[in-house]
Amino acid sequence: MKSETAAFLKKNKKRLLEAWVQNQMSDSTLRDDLISNEELSKQSDDLLDALLVALGSGKLNVDSDKFQPVSDILSELSVTRARQGFSPRETSMFVMSLKKAFYAMLEDQYKNDPATLYQETVELNNLLDSMSIVTMETFIQGREEVILRQTDEISEISTPVIRVWEGILALPIIGTLDSARTQVVMENLLQQIVETGSRIAILDISGVPTVDSLVAQHLIKTVSATRLMGAECIISGIRAEIAQTIVHLGIDLSGINTKASLASALKLAYSMLGIEVRRAERKTIF
Amino acid sequence: MMTLSKETLTIQREPDVIYFRNKAKEYAVKIGMSMVGQTKLITAASELVRNMLRYANGGEAVLEIVIRNNIKGVRLTFADKGPGIKDVKQAMQDGFSTGRSLGLGLPGAKRLSNEFDIKSEVGKGTTVTIIRWKNGL
Amino acid sequence: MDKIPILKMGEFLLVTIQVDLYDRLALALENDLINMVSKTEARGVLIDISAVSIVDSFMGRILGNIASMSKIMDAETVVVGMQPAVAITLVELGLTLTGVHTALDVEKGMELLRNKIGYLPKEEEDLYDDII
């Protein structure tokens, strides 16, 4: 870009900014519910400042060091917008609407010099296109971070550890037990065992849709780790069809305490701890 | 994959193992690896360093923080100039050992890592590389 | 060279491992402990590894050895206080420490040892009463 063009744009920054903000405000995709006008002006101002400084450097290349501040501002902005729930279209409008403002200015300045106008427009166009790409890339990255965080949250929420009695923990597992899930279950369980000093953990798999050899392996690993810590593990909630698959697949669960229901697992846990539960002599309300 | 930082340690004596383990742990903590992840990494490292001491009288261990697809990880490389392994496939099986160990070293280290690579040439030496990612299982 | 202290508590031996072991230190512990079992005719060995951040296959083998050797000399071995991360890693490594009893903490380990040893012969029980 010619140095006089850069200087001209710099001199007219205020007009440029006004036109740009105006463009954004008048666009139908403006999300005034997510971002205030002042904030929008502030963001536009910051980016424009950085951009005008970089334009003075001659060669227009987003990847060059001179443009680093520009890409930094853009990346931060689009990651924030992704988190706030902006759509891709709304996010890309930010840079796209700057084009219009630039073109109007250039057209005004180079009315009588079409060759220069053309050259400068193409250069600026290429630059803004690359900036759009940076915006999109980081926007998607921001979204992916959101997804990753949610995945983590889901796997943590879905594996509660319940203290059913002094020294007895229960873990109802609901949903498919894959490697990632098993890891979370195992870590939660062992941590709780240490914290509560519980000697028995009941893994209830009533809510697990299918048990294949991989899931069984995960269960066996969990039981082994529990035993290494010095606690015992009972697996309950084994439905008829699960028992059938386990035998058909030739999975050996003989070294593990298994029970059909949580109630019978609890009974076993009581007897292991030497606890007796009896009906009271006196009349009860039930 | 890019390397963010790198350090090379020489392993010659047994206490070097402890020092190396602590270093590896430091790296894992630096990138925010979970407790279980750290423990798996240093356990794998311990197995591999021991192999290097026992079968090759020591060698070089390289610690690196690497990044791929925006995810950080710790890469450990163990290079020795020992006798090499005749049958790598056999050495990777559980329970196989030419020494008097449990034969869990190599296959165990592989299970504890997210990525595992072994290159060995008889008479020249062995190089084992492992990676554990920050969010690896 | 460093040495791991072994405490005698009645008929049990107690070892608290406070540092990460390298191989020679672990071997020395195995040796000292077995000699101690033989000398004191201990009935139980309690190894507290709550401060240990790593148990690899060598350390696992040492623990297994101590348990088997003590067993021949009629003493039970209990490993207590294993960290969750260590337990998960051991399972992944493929070591389940067969023959080694485990407990959550020293207190529960003691209780387990007393249960394992079980009965006390009649005369011995009387003798005990007298002493107390």
From TrEMBL, chain A:
Residues 158-269 form the STAS domain. The keyword Phosphoprotein applies. The keyword Phosphoprotein applies. Keywords: Phosphoprotein. InterPro entries: Bact_StressResp_Reg, RsbRD_N_dom, STAS_dom, STAS_dom_sf. It comes from Adhaeribacter rhizoryzae. The lineage of its organism: Bacteria, Pseudomonadati, Bacteroidota, Cytophagia, Cytophagales. This is STAS domain-containing protein.
UniProtKB/TrEMBL annotation, chain B:
InterPro entries: HATPase_C_sf (IPR036890), HATPase_dom (IPR003594). Coiled coil: none annotated. SUPFAM superfamilies: ATPase domain of HSP90 chaperone/DNA topoisomerase II/histidine kinase (SSF55874). Residues 36-136 form the Histidine kinase/HSP90-like ATPase domain. This is Anti-sigma regulatory factor. It comes from Adhaeribacter rhizoryzae. The lineage of its organism: Bacteria, Pseudomonadati, Bacteroidota, Cytophagia, Cytophagales.
From TrEMBL, chain C:
Residues 2-113 form the STAS domain. InterPro entries: Bact_StressResp_Reg, STAS_dom, STAS_dom_sf. It holds the Pfam family STAS. SUPFAM superfamilies: SpoIIaa-like. Gene3D superfamilies: STAS domain. It comes from the Bacteria. This is STAS domain-containing protein.
